[in-house]
């Protein structure tokens, strides 16, 4: 049961981070619109803050596509600012040719898996550094890395286009394992908890940092609205 609880918390944090990320983009874009009559400066600021994560995200797509022998094209790590005016949150992209659902699934999933692996490493570094092992600036870099990876590892709508088929396949495999090989799912609680617990900790840290940034951006936006007598219309 502890594994189930940890998994529920993990899923909740992933969903919450996706929503908080959208809100952060909204607040930065809104503040930018009030100050500069354009959302572009806000999108550019967001892109620069999360640039290292965007690079890792797109390289993950590219590497897995190359491994699976799916033809790749141009890689971009900055948003299309014309698209940014409409509120797009797509920071980068990798052009790939059409492939079968299985390969498309793994290419789309690659940044999420890479992000989780990096977060596990960063969680161990954070745990070590919090005890005073690292100087303060290294600890700040670790927390920054957690924030960046936690936000940019999310799977975009384009990356989810092959998921219905593959999700059904994986659910079928899980049902078969649960029925005929239950030990595979039930006899490794310590292993699963060893992965989920540190992930939940660093995802929680990311969520808190996002809330702080959203709170600061919201307060600045409301202050500017009062000073300029202008308001951002909610769609």
What would you note in describing this structure?
There is one protein chain. The chain has 235 residues and is mainly alpha-helical. It has one domain (2-228). The protein contains nine helices and two strands. It has a two-stranded antiparallel ribbon. Helix 1 packs across helix 2. The longest helix is centred in the C-terminal third of the chain and has 40 residues, at 189-228. The protein is globular. The relative contact order is 0.15. The model is unreliable at 83-88 (pLDDT under 50).
Q: Layout of SSEs?
A:
Blueprint: H1 2-36, H2 40-49, H3 51-67, E1 72-76, H4 81-84, E2 93-96, H5 101-129, H6 136-152, H7 163-180, H8 182-186, H9 189-228
Antiparallel strand pairs: 1-2
Helix pairs in contact: 1-2, 1-9, 3-5, 3-6, 5-6, 5-9, 6-9
Describe what is shown at a glance:
The protein has helices at 2-36, 40-49, 51-67, 81-84, 101-129, 136-152, 163-180, 182-186, 189-228; strands at 72-76, 93-96. With 235 residues, it is mainly alpha-helical.
